[in-house]
Amino acid sequence: AIKAHVGADTSSDLLYATRVSRGTADLDAIDTFYVDVMGATLDIDSTTADYERHCFKYSTSSTVDLCFTTRNESATSSDFTIADMEGQMNGVHAALLAKPTCGVDKWLDNHHAYDAQSVSTSSIVTFLDSDAGADTYYYCSPQGSSYILHYIIDPTGWGIQLDLSATTQPSGCSDAARQVKAGGDYNPACDLGSC
User: Fold this and answer.
1) For 136, how many CA atoms within 13 A lie in the half-sphere containing its CB?
2) In which order are the strands placed within the sheet that holds 65-71?
3) Considering the chain, what is the average pLDDT of its residues?
4) Which end of the chain, N or C, is less packed with Cβ atoms under 10 Å?
5) Contact, 30 vs 155, CB < 8 A?
6) How confident is the model over 115-129, as pLDDT tens digits?
7) Whole-angstrom distance, CA of residue 177 vs CA of residue 186
8) What pLDDT, in 10s, does the model give residues 24-75?
9) In what order do the strands lie in the sheet containing 138-143?
10) Which residues pair with 149 in a beta bridge?
11) CB 68, CB 77: distance < 8 Å
12) Cβ neighbours of residue 191 under 8 Å, at least 6 residues apart?
């Protein structure tokens, strides 16, 4: 089990998450996305001759850093670079999330979660519906007779599961065509949405 490690008994045999680490080809894009869109704060800014790393926290009470590292392409031992991986993932998103209510993008299985039910998604929704957010991929999952914002994709192509309080939804989560039969054995995990 993974639990927050603040105040935990050090004699326990539990595993605690302390950092989520990702590589990136564009640290400036990461800074802009996490600070301006997600509302995170820069917690660690580390630079050496070999790399530059920025770590973020969603809140001051967060116990896990979300870190992104960039380095010279010459540090890569093969022809496949971090930029290539980002391009590959975002290419899949472009094909499968062109309609945010179509849930067949398996890259979303590799995500971290922003768990804060007291935080509103309103600034994220405003961004997604703006010109600045027009190229940002996101997924809206079925819930009842409508769709709700479930994932947003950061510039690297990795997903963020949004376990936040939602009072509004982005326009791509339109529920105009959503029809779910009431009762029965409906399981939202088995519903790929509207493709």
Assistant:
1) 27
2) 19-23, 65-71, 51-57, 41-47
3) 83
4) N
5) yes
6) 888 888 889 999 999
7) 17
8) 999 999 999 999 999 999 999 999 999 999 999 998 888 889 999 999 877 8
9) 111-120, 159-165, 146-153, 138-143
10) 140
11) no
12) 103, 142, 180
HEC string of 49-117 equals CCEEEEEEECCCCCCCEEEEEEECHHHCCCCCCHHHHHHHHHHHHHHHCCCCCECCCHHHHCEEEEEEE
CA 112-43-64 angle, to 5 degrees, is: 35
* Angstrom distance (rounded) from CA 27 to CA 94: 21
H or E, element range at 125:
helix 122-128
Compute φ and ψ for 27, nearest 5 degrees: -65, -30
Residue with tokens 């398996």: 106
Q: What is the dihedral of CA 148, 153, 154, 156, to 10 degrees?
A: 170
Q: How far is Cα 96 from Cα 74, in angstroms, rounded to an integer?
A: 32
Question: How far is residue 182 from each of residues 145, 174, 177, 190, 192, measured CA to CA in Å?
Answer: 9, 19, 16, 15, 17
Query: First and final CA of the chain: distance in angstroms?
Result: 36
